[in-house]
């Protein structure tokens, strides 16, 4: 075979790899094809592909007999030198080069004579690994071998980068599906509509900052026409806090429906959450029992505030006191006795998580509670659901485009007669 015939044959092999690149979606079969073509056109015994792990800054073998999975620092050896410098390295005598590590030969029984190493570079110029040809059968690797190795390495670099992008996209699709399911489950646990309470209107609303959130609200009918109201906010937002608030809601329902009085119920929920939560995680929570016959709310707040009581007749608002630290901090931490609040016609009880109060505008100022009080003054005889919508409109207008950084949850109670 003449040199011209050989070069035509070799270039056709490179073109064949390019065609496969367009139709082969999986990386491993493509790398195997590149390795087989490289062995053929370079006339060598073995071809290995080392990929770069950017998190550990290591090279690891993705294609290579006897050494699959081997890892080493990305600046180590001949492969590391090619990766870091971006240069093609030809080593005519492996054992004469101080960068060569003979330990692999000793372990496998293989004898490395000469080496051709070429960096793998993606379409954007970012190095993704190294391709290495070992033991050319007829003499040393020459300049034409270097050119062929560059061409094949370019195909491999593009394939690797494409596959990584596809893997990232697939993983994101999977996470999006899982988060959508988690969001659906969490949203289904929230009340669809408030209970009917004689002389009162109630409304609740939730909007997480991410697919799932760390807030919850709940209603639970009790004996004698009473209704329990709960609102909670776990540290952070996302899947982890969503699990915390789900556990808190379930525990609260169990103990309140079992007939425990409010202090006993909150203490039990706190102890149980301390067993469930990791250190540094907690849930602020409000638990109240509305007695419509007495027009009285008995409540206990575990670090959840501010809770606003708006007196319609006087057009004034007050922040109700809290009774202890958040839930899940210490199992035997005492809480103050619950408070009793008498409600008069037109009065509002407004419970909102700190996502409302702490939402910052473009200048860094927080929305705060005073702006919410203005919403209540303007509400008149509006329904609680409309008040929540007005509060959300007010906070988003104040934010002026700054993104929602925390979950938003609200429960509003209004005495009508």
Produce a short descriptive summary.
The protein is an alpha+beta fold and 417 residues long.
Can you describe this structure?
This protein is α+β, with helices and mostly antiparallel strands and 417 residues long. The chain has two domains: 3-165, GAF domain (Beta-Lactamase, 2-Layer Sandwich); 185-415, Phosphatase 2c, domain 1 (4-Layer Sandwich), CATH 3.60.40.10. It contains ten helices and 16 strands. The protein has a six-stranded antiparallel sheet with strand order 3-2-1-6-5-4, sandwiched between helices. The protein has a five-stranded antiparallel sheet with strand order 7-16-15-12-13. Strands 8-9-10-11-14 form a five-stranded antiparallel sheet, covered by helices on one side. A hairpin with a 5-residue loop joins strand 5 and strand 6 (127-136). Helix 1 (3-23) runs parallel beside helix 5 (143-189), helix 2 runs antiparallel to helix 5 (143-189) and helix 6 packs antiparallel against helix 7.
Overall structural domain count: 2
Instruction: Count the E strands.
Output: 16
| Radius of gyration, whole Å | 34 Å
Percent helix: 25-40%
Which spans of ≥5 residues are poorly predicted at pLDDT below 50? Answer: none
Which structural class should the secondary elements be placed in? alpha+beta
At the first level of CATH, the class of the largest domain is Alpha Beta
Q: Which of globular, elongated, flat, extended, rod-shaped describes the shape?
A: elongated
The order of strands across the largest sheet is: 3-2-1-6-5-4
Instruction: Please report the number of helical segments.
Output: 10
- Note the gap between the termini: 103 Å
Q: Which fold name fills CATH's third level, the topology of the largest domain?
A: Phosphatase 2c, domain 1
Q: What is the CATH architecture annotation of the largest domain?
A: 4-Layer Sandwich
Strand content: 25-35%
Biggest sheet overview: 6 strands, antiparallel
Following the backbone from N to C, one meets helices and strands in this order, namely HHEEEHEHEEHEEEHHEEEEEEHHHE
User: What's the rounded overall pLDDT mean?
Assistant: 86
């Amino acid at each position: 075979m003449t040199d011209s015939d050989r070069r035509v044959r070799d270039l056709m092999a490179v073109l064949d790899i390019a065609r496969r690149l367009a139709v082969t979606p999986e990386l491993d079969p493509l790398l195997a094809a590149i390795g087989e073509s490289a062995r053929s056109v370079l006339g060598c015994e073995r071809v290995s592909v080392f990929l770069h792990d950017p998190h550990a800054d290591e090279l690891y073998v993705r294609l290579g007999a006897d050494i699959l999975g081997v890892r080493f620092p990305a600046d180590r050896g001949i492969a590391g030198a090619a990766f870091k410098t971006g240069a093609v390295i030809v080593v005519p005598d492996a054992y004469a080069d101080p960068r060569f590590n003979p330990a692999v030969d000793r372990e496998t029984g293989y004898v490395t004579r000469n080496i051709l190493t070429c960096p793998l570079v993606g379409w954007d110029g970012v190095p993704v690994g190294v391709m290495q040809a070992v033991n050319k059968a007829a003499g040393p690797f020459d300049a034409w071998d270097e050119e062929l190795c560059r061409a094949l390495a370019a195909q491999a670099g593009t394939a690797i980068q494409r596959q990584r992008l596809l893997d990232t996209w697939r993983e994101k699709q999977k996470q999006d599906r899982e988060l959508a399911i988690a969001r659906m489950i969490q949203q289904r646990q929230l009340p669809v509509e408030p209970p009917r309470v004689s002389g009162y209107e109630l409304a609740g609303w939730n909007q997480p900052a991410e697919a799932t959130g760390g807030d919850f609200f709940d209603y639970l009918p009790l004996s004698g026409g009473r209704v329990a109201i709960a609102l909670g906010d776990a540290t952070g937002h996302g899947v982890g806090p969503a699990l915390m608030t789900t556990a808190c809601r379930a525990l609260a329902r169990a103990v309140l429906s079992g007939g425990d009085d409010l202090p006993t119920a909150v203490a039990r929920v706190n102890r149980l959450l301390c067993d469930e939560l990791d250190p540094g995680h907690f849930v602020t929570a409000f638990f109240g029992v509305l007695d419509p016959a007495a027009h009285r709310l008995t409540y206990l707040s575990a670090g959840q505030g501010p809770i606003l009581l708006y007196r319609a007749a006087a057009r004034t608002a007050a922040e109700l006191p809290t009774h202890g630290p958040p839930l899940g901090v210490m199992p035997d931490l005492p809480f103050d006795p619950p408070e009793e609040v008498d409600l008069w016609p037109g009065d509002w009880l407004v419970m909102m998580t700190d996502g409302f109060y702490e939402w910052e505008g473009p200048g860094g100022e927080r929305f705060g509670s005073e702006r919410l009080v203005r919403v209540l003054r303007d509400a008149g005889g509006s329904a609680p659901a409309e008040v929540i919508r007005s509060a959300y409109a007010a906070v988003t207008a104040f934010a002026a485009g700054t993104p929602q950084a925390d979950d938003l949850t609200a429960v509003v109670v209004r005495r009508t007669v």
